[in-house]
Every structure is written in structure tokens, then in C-alpha cells.
Amino acid sequence: MTRERSNHPCTVVIKLGSSSIVHEKTHQPLLSTLSSVVETVVSLRAQGHKVVLVSSGAIAVGLQRMDLPSRPKTLAGKQALAAIGQGRLIGLWDDLFRHLGQPIAQILLTRGDISDRTRYLNAVNTLQELLSMGVVPIVNENDTVSVSEIKFGDNDTLSAITSSMIHADYLFLLTDVDGLYTANPRKDPDAKHIELVTSISAIREKVSTTTLGSSLGTGGMETKIIAAEIATGAGVLTIITSSKSPSDIAEIMEYHNAQRFSLGATSPAENNDADTAPTADLPRPRHTAFAPSPIPLRDLKSWTRHTLFPSGSVVVDTGAHSVLSRRESGGRLLAAGVLGVIGAFASGQAVRVVTPKHRSVYEHLIATEAAGVHSTGSTRPTTPSIVAASSVSSSVASLEPLSRSGSFNVLSEAVTDKLAEPEEPQFQESEVVEIGRGLAMYNSAELTRIKGLKSTYIPQVLGYADSEYVVENITIHAPP
Ligand SMILES: N[C@@H](CCC(=O)OP(=O)(O)O)C(=O)O
């Protein structure tokens, strides 16, 4: 029985690496590949799909223009060549699309551009507007202003972030190999092609990522797996396939759409065999498919996790870690679970959520605090928050008398301590391990003062409380 084919309109991101755009040695544009991509995109558009192209190649085209043999070593050299090549590259795309009456737009992004929520939303709005106008946006990294710390690093990551920004259904990573292999297929005749990936961490152990990669691009299989991790986490079905036959894109979509949309399924991840069984009547063009997460990250969480550079870290105790690992936590952290902060950050900035690497670091801190009791002659620890934060229950217990008094004018000693000068950070980055990321609701100095306290005491310590949580929109990383 032939299954009914799905015409579900999709949003598709297609990424081409430098080695698919220009010849590796001569740096001449690969006109037949580019023309075939253009025909495919125009045909997808005619079927009602929205398409974004992520095109590398500015540096490579710049090399050809300046008749240089290889990528310069210096950052400024690469930036200059990208500035020379980008205009030509977009001109080339425009020429090809113009023959088929398809308008295009150039979008140049840096991670710095979209790590600010407002600018990120502006970029999203522009992309959405262009798509609804029937335009094909062509995205590249804005190499001229990208310096090491604001660089996407490679266009695989940029394409994954783009696909997450516009809630794409598909991300196609077109490259010089037709998918992921267990080993380098050019060197190992026993290398096996992988059709479907449902667990990225499992696949990392199975495959060699040293495969291929040209002298032109910065990506390789490793960056494609990272891109797949970002995109599938945002609910995007990610495909690695060869750039030699871009017309396969439509067939690959048809193959997967038959199960994704005709069968009422939301993703192939619902059924590990779904990649082959339900579409047996359709040909399967050679590719590797990465199943999208059945529970995609919400836009804000995906943005926080992948597009922001954390400005500092919030150290949490094991109790908070285990609560945050549960879905019911809603990705929100209370001050009671905070042991300390590292670095300086403002409210609204992204922070790492970390735990002490070795329990001994944490115990050492408590011991140091306890030693402080004797050296100061005080009857209580000088920084009771550390002791209070050793478990959520102890932090609650230490403040209960005030809580029971019901008076917000009477401050306990613990709270009075919080009104003192902010303490110095007590953890080092080398002593902690990152478990997730989120958005700080208080700045680092404020958080130092309220760490370990019940939320009801925040107004007494700070004089205000914008949120009962200290970090929100936390995404906890999957265990390695
Ligand atoms: N933005 C750079 C490309 C970065 C890069 O090398 O990407 P890729 O070829 O996809 O590994 C350019 O246009 O030359």
C-alpha cells in the first residue's frame, strides 16, 4: 500500500559549508552545486515551505578574489578576506536566485548580536518578516566584527541557533560526506553509515568525529554533532547529507514528513524504528537523521542556554541540584539552595549554575566558617548562610524563630548578617562543575547577601524583592 504523501508546510534551514561553495584548491565557486541548491530552494518555496540558507564561503571567495593560496593565520587577515568575499558571495547568490525570480536578503550575525534579548528578538522578527514576505534570508557570521569571544566559531553552530530562533522543522547540514559514519569512510573500509541518531551522547561514543573537514572551513563532524545537539534540543529534525545532490532535500523531507505529519506523530523520537518502518514505501536518500527532542526547550530556555555567554556562576548545593534536575522545579532556583557566587553579573544576565566539584571543597568551606566562630569569639558563625545553606531544611530551621514571630520589623541575627558588607566570593571556577545555565534575577552582590536564605527574607535584606527566585529559566545539562 502506498502511503499518502505529506505536503505539510515546513520551515527549513539549509547550511552549506565553505567546501560546498568553492573548490578546495582553486577557490572557484562550485556553480553546479550552487545552481542546484538554488533550484531546490525555489522548488521548496513553490511547495509552500519557508527556507533560510546559512552560507559560509566569504573567506574562501575572498581568497579567490585576492588570488591567495590559503586562509590567513591572523584573525585580522581572515576578517579582511571575509569583508572582501562576503559582497561577492551574496552577489553570486543573488545572481543565481534572480534568474528564477526569487528575492533574497543578507543577514550577518554574531553571537554578541543575539546574546542581548532585545537584539535577539529583533533578529527573530526580521527573519520571520522576511519569510512571510516570501524572501530567502541568507545568513552568515558577521566575520568583520567577530573576535574570538563573540564568534560562533563555525557556521554549523550558527545554523543550529538560526533554526532554533525560527522554530524550524528541519535543519540540513550539507557537507562533503553523505552522513555520519562510525569511522572515517575515506580511510576505513569498515566504516558504517548511521541512518538515525536518537541519542547524541550515545553516538559520540560510537563514532569518530575526526572524519573529513576541509582546509577551507572551520567545522567538521564534531561541530555538526554539536549543531545537531542544539537544534534537536530545540525540536528541529537535523539532517547531515551530501551537498552534491541538493535535490535530495525534498525527498528527505517527504520521507520524514510521511511519518512526522501524516501519522500524527510529532517526532521520530517517539519511535526508534520510525525512521524506517512507516515509510518503507518511500525511497530513503542517503543521510543521517538526528531525531528532535520530544520535549523541545522553550524559546527563552534555548536562547539562554545556547546564545548567551554566562557572566558568572551561581554555586548551588546538592539539594538544589537534585530539585533542579526534576521537571517540576520549573527551572527556578531559590536563594536557600545557593552556596555562593563566582564573578560579577547583573540581574538579567546569563549565569552558569554550578556545584562544588568535590564534596570536600564544600565541607572545607563549612569547616572554615565554623573556625571563624572561635576566632571571632562569636557565639554563631560569622557567615551563617553557609551553614544554613548546607541543606534546605537547615536553612529553614535556622530562620524559623523569625518566621514564627510573623514580624518583618524584627530581624534575626542571620538576616542582620546579610545587611553587612557583601562577602568576597569563596569559590573558584576550578572547584566547581557546571550543571546548567539560567538567567540571574539578582546581581552577584545581592545574591551574595541573600544566599542560603528563605525567599521571604529577601525584602528585609535587600529592601526589595523582584522575584522569589534568584535564577530562572534554568536548563540543566544532560549527564555526560
Ligand atoms: N563565516 C566564514 C565561515 C566559517 C566557516 O569556516 O564555516 P564552515 O565552512 O561551515 O566550517 C566564511 O563565510 O568564510
From TrEMBL:
<keyword id="KW-0808">Transferase</keyword>
<keyword id="KW-0418">Kinase</keyword>
<dbReference type="InterPro" id="IPR011529">
    <property type="entry name" value="Glu_5kinase"/>
</dbReference>
<dbReference type="Pfam" id="PF00696">
    <property type="entry name" value="AA_kinase"/>
</dbReference>
<dbReference type="InterPro" id="IPR036393">
    <property type="entry name" value="AceGlu_kinase-like_sf"/>
</dbReference>
<dbReference type="GO" id="GO:0004349">
    <property type="term" value="F:glutamate 5-kinase activity"/>
</dbReference>
<keyword id="KW-0641">Proline biosynthesis</keyword>
<dbReference type="InterPro" id="IPR041739">
    <property type="entry name" value="G5K_ProB"/>
</dbReference>
<protein>
    <submittedName>
        <fullName>Glutamate 5-kinase</fullName>
    </submittedName>
</protein>
<dbReference type="GO" id="GO:1901607">
    <property type="term" value="P:alpha-amino acid biosynthetic process"/>
</dbReference>
<dbReference type="InterPro" id="IPR015947">
    <property type="entry name" value="PUA-like_sf"/>
</dbReference>
<dbReference type="InterPro" id="IPR001057">
    <property type="entry name" value="Glu/AcGlu_kinase"/>
</dbReference>
<dbReference type="InterPro" id="IPR019797">
    <property type="entry name" value="Glutamate_5-kinase_CS"/>
</dbReference>
<feature type="domain" description="Aspartate/glutamate/uridylate kinase">
    <location>
        <begin position="11"/>
        <end position="238"/>
    </location>
</feature>
<keyword id="KW-0067">ATP-binding</keyword>
<keyword id="KW-0028">Amino-acid biosynthesis</keyword>
<dbReference type="InterPro" id="IPR036974">
    <property type="entry name" value="PUA_sf"/>
</dbReference>
<dbReference type="GO" id="GO:0005829">
    <property type="term" value="C:cytosol"/>
</dbReference>
<keyword id="KW-0547">Nucleotide-binding</keyword>
<dbReference type="InterPro" id="IPR005715">
    <property type="entry name" value="Glu_5kinase/COase_Synthase"/>
</dbReference>
<dbReference type="GO" id="GO:0003723">
    <property type="term" value="F:RNA binding"/>
</dbReference>
<dbReference type="GO" id="GO:0005524">
    <property type="term" value="F:ATP binding"/>
</dbReference>
<feature type="region of interest" description="Disordered">
    <location>
        <begin position="265"/>
        <end position="287"/>
    </location>
</feature>
<keyword id="KW-0963">Cytoplasm</keyword>
<dbReference type="InterPro" id="IPR001048">
    <property type="entry name" value="Asp/Glu/Uridylate_kinase"/>
</dbReference>
